[in-house]
Amino acid sequence: MHRRVIWLQLILGWLPVGVLYAALIGFSHPGASIHFAAFAGFLSIAIAAALGLPVQRLAERVPWPHPFRPWFVGLHVTAAVFYAVAWQGLTRTIQWGLHGNAAISFHYRLVPSLILGVWLYVMVAGVAYATQATERAARAEAIAARSQLAALRAQLHPHFLFNALHTVVQLIPTDPRRAAQAAEQIAGLLRTTIEEGRDLVSLAEEAAFVEKYLDLERIRFGDRLRVRVELSDAARDALIPSFAVQTLVENAVRHGAAPRVEPTEITVTARATSDETTVTVHDTGVGVSPEQIAQSEGTGLKHLRDRLAALYGGRARLDLGAGPEGGFTASLTVPRVPAA
């Protein structure tokens, strides 16, 4: 499929040149029929396009030098002359075989024809080098994006470890047995975070990891932490950034449930359309004002915003605010398309 697209692009690129060349031949030779001018023009440009393939190969084998070198100009001047001569030679030979003497009077003079051949060479070589520059820029951007995502994902590990160990530290003085249990669960969670190298996972996989994390927090909070998860069938297969929902749930536990003595309920809901997936995490905790949100967004949420920007550009969003009946709500929306 990719090869067919390339050939279609080549045909569409040369087609206007063929039309212009046929029209130029027709205007320069009023006595020639339209069919004859069109055939001669498109045949000549088809030969030019075929000779353009070696020019593209040459551009691939001899990349644009940095810094610029004089030999580079000499190489392409020589190749341009060779291209122009080969183009005119093949065109005249083929037309002679097809039309005999009638084709001789149908051509421009030799020098203008060679100049046109050099111009076609410059066009082909220029497009080839411009394409190479675009591909290099795209590869560099992709490498930079992968490096940035790897760094952001790595930053999640110490942040998550700090919060998880905080749970164990709080249990050690009051319940050493449960502290040991929590330490074992932390080891399992950390193994998952370290081994997970994907940037995108299904929401079902993310929900399974979140459930393991909540099992750890239930050791500390007991009945004070209540969780309800509602995922639509369409949303379960949707791809979201790895550890995204875990970050939102962790934020709800730390800032919503931890400061309270009363029970706190955390609700995770997800819905999906053909265009986007939205995951909402709401807690009935202490709540915050919009001013507090703007001033004190935690490290985890900041890293999540950075990952969203790296993966989706401006096509994803993270909305934070107070719930309709108090508490705190975080809503993550990502497009249902492959990430950038």
- Helix and strand element order: HHHHHEHEHEHEEHHEE
Distance between the termini: 21 Å
Shape: elongated
| Mean pLDDT value | 79
Quick structural summary:
It is built from 10 helices and 7 strands. The protein has helices at residues 2-28, 34-61, 70-99, 110-171, 176-195, 203-221, 233-236, 244-257, 290-295, 299-312, and strands at residues 200-202, 225-231, 239-241, 264-272, 276-283, 317-322, 328-335. Helix 6 (203-221) runs parallel beside helix 8.
Description:
A hairpin with a 3-residue loop joins strand 4 (264-272) and strand 5 (276-283). By secondary structure, this protein is α+β, with helices and mostly antiparallel strands. It is elongated. The strands form two sheets. A five-stranded mixed beta sheet has the order 2-4-5-7-6. It is built from ten helices and seven strands. Residues 102-107 have low confidence and may be disordered. It is 66% helix and 13% strand. It has two domains: 2-139, no CATH class; 198-335, 2-Layer Sandwich (Heat Shock Protein 90). It starts with a helix and ends in a 5-residue tail after the last strand.
Question: How are the elements arranged and paired?
Answer:
Elements: H1 2-28, H2 34-61, H3 70-99, H4 110-171, H5 176-195, E1 200-202, H6 203-221, E2 225-231, H7 233-236, E3 239-241, H8 244-257, E4 264-272, E5 276-283, H9 290-295, H10 299-312, E6 317-322, E7 328-335
Q: Which features would summarize this protein structure in a list?
A:
340 residues, alpha+beta, Heat Shock Protein 90, 2 domains, two-stranded antiparallel ribbon, 10 helices, 13% strand
